[in-house]
Amino acid sequence: DLLATVAALNEDQGVHGILVQLPLPDRIDAARVLGAIDPAKDVDGFHPLNVGRLFSASGRIPSDLLLPCTPKGCMILLEEALGDLGGRHAVVVGRSNIVGKPLAALLLAANCTVTIAHSRSRDLSGLCRGAEILVAAVGRPELVRGDWIGHGATVLDVGINRVAGEDGKSKLVGDVAFAEAQGRAGAITPVPGGVGPMTVACLLDNTLIAARARHRRQG
Prior knowledge:
Elements: H1 2-11, H2 30-36, H3 48-56, H4 69-82, E1 89-93, H5 100-109, E2 113-117, H6 124-129, E3 133-136, E4 154-157, E5 161-164, E6 170-173, H7 178-182, E7 187-188, H8 195-218
Parallel strand pairs: 1-2, 1-3, 3-4, 4-7
Antiparallel strand pairs: 5-6
């Protein structure tokens, strides 16, 4: 049923963007579903063709490429805060197909030196401490402590974790211990209200890119 719905949306000329809300139930093959989406309508940027174009880009990312939304938003924030990223050492904590891997590819295309770390990396705190740009996208609440951050580093916290607060009510926290990090980071995104809104904005931007591309093809 899901594949039939995707096929119908692919054919619908009035639909310019398709995304599948992940994660899917275990009984459904997510890779098969994502692969069934028309790459030109893949506004999440997860289709293998779009992923391949991203990782094969040498330096300049094609302007019509539909990029994964969260990494795209991260790059906008970094370029706004730092300007030219060339030569900077970026550490990405997290290796997911949704954030970690595509963001590393975008940082490489921006001429950063990139280290991909994860929860099993040896001396994770030391790796983080050496970063000029630190991205936490591992999905573990407040894993990155304040003293893991080099003085003046730019920190993007992609994590969204719901934990119990002191009042017994749940609250959202990131992958970075925000209060500790503020004293060391040159700039840091909060959770919520940091990277999240950029993800939504980039989804809309991708939809606009897809719509314009279709109209150009139709003449």
